[in-house]
Amino acid sequence: MYAMAETAPDASLADLDRLAELAEDVIRRARAAGASQAEVAASIDTGLSVNVRLGEVETVEHTRDRGFGLTVYFGRRKGSASTADLDPRSIDATLAQACAIARYTEEDPAAGLADPERMARHFPDLDLWHPWALDTAQAIALGQRIEAAGRAHAGITQSDGASVQSQASLSVYANSHGFVGRERGTSHSLALTLIAGEGEQMQRDYWYDHRRAAADLMDPVALGDRAAERTLARLGARSLSTRSCPVLFAPEVARGLIGHLVGAVSGGALYRRASFLLGAAGQSIMPGWLNLYERPFLRRGHGSAAFDAEGVATSDSALVEAGVLVRYVLGSYAARKLGLVTTGNAGGIHNLVVAPGAADGEASDFSAMLQRLGSGLLVTEVMGQGVNLVTGDYSRGAAGFWVEAGRIVAPVAEVTIAGNLREMLAGIQAVGTDVDPRSSILTGSILLERMTVAGA
Predict the structure, then answer these.
(1) Tens of pLDDT along 199-235?
(2) Strand pairing report for 441-442 and 376-383
(3) What is the architecture of the domain spanning 12-233?
(4) Where in the chain is the domain with CATH 3.30.2290.10?
(5) pLDDT digits (tens, 9 = 90+) for 35-89
(6) Which class for 124: exposed (0-12), middle (13-18), buried (19 or more C-beta within 10 A)?
(7) Strand runs labelled E in 75-179
(8) Which of 9, 184, 412, 423 is 20 to 30 A (C-alpha) from 31?
(9) pTM of the full predicted structure?
């Protein structure tokens, strides 16, 4: 589908070996300097990013970034330092600085590496490494092709540009338990933002795709068409009178709702007592038919990993089962603060799958989800930061479409949707099969029983 430059020899495994050797050497030196424990995270990231607007190149950016972070523990005293330079002198200075910091910090009973018996021992191939041999000229041509496809639609009056991005990341995490974990992954994306209409009637929308392998990306012409269709569909958008009605979150918006749930059950929010779901483990927080599972071993998954940011083995496990919150999302530090054990989630969740379904047991595609909505608001975009995880209060600007009898009848803009996350989660009526694969949170559209929609 995409033109390729001549493939260069893949040096990624050799680079990983060098990072691992450096990490192990620095850990040995940290122990010799008196550290009781030490851990290192080292990385090399490369990328190409091209932006095209109105057929002309706006920006071209090539990146090659290096990172090296060291944390040492002198008992329960912690010191961390980092550098973006892998030069031996920079590494020496980083080691000296981390040790100096640790010697003068206060003791923290929760500080320290994750428990050694929790370290990962199994490292399956998760199919995350797919370098895209794309040169600058080819990336520019691809961006121009995407934009031209979108601008060819009657009614499209302007473009905010197309982007083509390709990134590759190599990383090593090692610690003084003897653990050394290597990871390599690629990430590629295409995007286009368009404008339709004139003056006060202008509307903007976009579409994008994001994959581990370029071969899985959406056809560029189809992506341009999709962006144009979405933009044109918003012409004539109006506000609504204030009302209470059912709300259907499109998949790309629904994953944000699930993201708020993950944030509320994550360790930092819990031990700071800054979550509306504090103490909710073992309680029913969602309908009894609803299940959320963490799946860290999905091939080509955006959140796939055999170990977390502390080297702890990941595992397939439920987060919500039959509506009940069965566990929190914890790294070892937060777990110790809470008197619990790590769930292998230092650094975040690893592919959270929201199982499609409904109270009647029938899974629905997007068309059927509109029928379930009946008359209500389909939300395709949310704006603003009006989410309070302490209280669960939710209030955000929104745009989308008004639906009558299961059919889209008019575009909607300049409204605010409001509710409380605890009530919203408990009031989920159905989850669609129209799963958005572009994220580590994998969910279809989500139908909520009722929200307040504030408009004109």
Answers:
(1) 888 999 999 999 999 999 999 999 999 999 999 999 9
(2) unpaired
(3) 2-Layer Sandwich (3.30)
(4) 12-233
(5) 999 999 999 999 999 999 999 999 999 999 999 999 999 999 999 999 999 999 9
(6) exposed
(7) 77-83, 156-175
(8) 184
(9) 0.94
